[in-house]
Structures are given as structure tokens and as C-alpha cells.
Amino acid sequence: MADEDAQRRAQREARILGAANTLITHYGYDKTTMDDIAGEAGVSKGAIYLHFKSKEALFEALILRESERVMEDMFERIEADPEGGTLFQLYTHALVAAISNPLIRALFTRDRRVLGDFQRRMVSTETMQQGMIFGRDFILHLQDAGLVRRDLSAETITYLLAYMRMGFFMSENVLPPEHTPSLDVMMPAMATMLSTGLAPGEGHDSEAGKAIVRGYVEQMRAVLKAYRAQAAERQK
């Protein structure tokens, strides 16, 4: 009986988060009310408060869930790609996974329409910072595995990748749609550019890169699990 109750609770929470995701990405955080979410999820507003103490707590849980989905999507893309362990394919798979998720895309583009007043809190959160797989330590591991040239510092490469990522996401706010190539065109071009500029002279071992990614994904799963536990404690 306890297992059935836990399952029903988990299913209800999933419906609430799904409804919140649909409404917030469409109407924005500020314009979406708890009543709206309850109606979309087919539950009472009181039922929402059994899971989340506030709208902010609900949105934080939603961001954690969508961050995990993007991470798993990226991981699946990398594993399915024979060259997925190279920096150049890693980077493009990560971008595609992020841009394919409306909420995470809004976080990266600082979309005020979606994030509303919550934006100021999210841009500096530890979750966002720890969620960056292309940090200095990650690049160092790729350099040690012979997957990235060593004559440039890991700090420089990390900055360049972050610079490119932000330019990629923010360009849609500057360039008209007719001047924006499709992802099918952009991703191979970006991978080629990165490969030309950052690949070492010798051959590369994609499987070594995948092994590094697996380690980082496990770390991120642990981070997200810890955040969910902390959030659950705050709800008590």
C-alpha cells in the first residue's frame, strides 16, 4: 500500500511539473499562477502545496528536472555517436541537447519573458555553474587523453568555448530568422571549426573521451540528487 501511495504521489508530482513546464515556457514565470498549473495538471491547488511550498520551490524543482533531462539527452547523443568522445562532437551534442529543451534554452538566453523575476536568482546559482560540463578540469582531462591540443591553456579553451556558447544562444536575439542557419547546418560547421582549431596533430581516441564524459555525468547525477534531497528537506 505504501508503495502504491508513493507511486501515485510521484505520478502527481510529474503531472504538476509537466504542467508547469508547458505553461511557464509558453506564458512565462511571472504570468503563470499556481491556479493555472493546477488546472493544467488536473489537480487542486492544495495538492500542489503538498509537493511544493511555493511557486519558487516548484520552479526550482522544474529546473532541476529539465537540467537532468538535458544531461541525459546529451549523454545518449554522445554514446550513440562513434566520434562522440571528441571535444568537437561533445560540444555540438551538448549544444543541441540544451537548445532542444525550451526551459534550458531560456536559461541560457536569459529570456526574460520566460524567466521573469526569477532570472536574477538563476543566473548565479551553483546548479548552473556546476552544470557546465566544459569547465577547466574537463578540458584538462581531454588534454591528458590527447583529445585537445596542449599548447593552449585549459583556461583559454574553456573561455573560448563559453564565449562561443553564449554567442550561439544569444545570436537569435540579434539576427533575423532568415539569416540564421538551421541546426543541421550549424552543428557540423561548428564541429569542423573546433576540430580545425583545437584538435591535436596526432590521432584521437573517441572512447577515451566517452569514458571522461561518463565520469562527469555520474558526478552531475550525484549533484542533482543532492539538490533534490536538499529541496525535499526544505519542503518539510
Polypeptide structure, described:
With 236 residues, this protein is mostly helical. The protein has 2 domains: 1-51, Arc Repressor Mutant, subunit A (Orthogonal Bundle), CATH 1.10.10.60; 52-235, Orthogonal Bundle (Tetracycline Repressor, domain 2). The chain is 73% helix and 0% strand. It has helices at residues 2-27, 34-41, 45-51, 55-80, 87-99, 102-108, 112-115, 119-122, 126-130, 136-144, 154-170, 183-198, 206-235. Mean pLDDT is 86; it is low at 123-131.
**What is the N-to-C order of secondary-structure elements (H for helix, E for strand)?**
HHHHHHHHHHHHH
Low-confidence stretches: 123-131
Q: How many structural domains?
A: 2
Proportion of residues in β-strands = under 5%
CATH fold type of the largest domain:
Tetracycline Repressor, domain 2
N→C terminal distance: 22 Å
Descriptors:
globular, Tetracycline Repressor, domain 2, mainly alpha, 236 residues, Arc Repressor Mutant, subunit A
Topology record:
Layout: H1 2-27, H2 34-41, H3 45-51, H4 55-80, H5 87-99, H6 102-108, H7 112-115, H8 119-122, H9 126-130, H10 136-144, H11 154-170, H12 183-198, H13 206-235
Helix pairs in contact: 1-2, 1-4, 4-5, 4-13, 5-12, 10-11
Quick overview of this protein structure:
With 236 residues, the protein is mainly α. Helix content is 73%, strand content 0%.
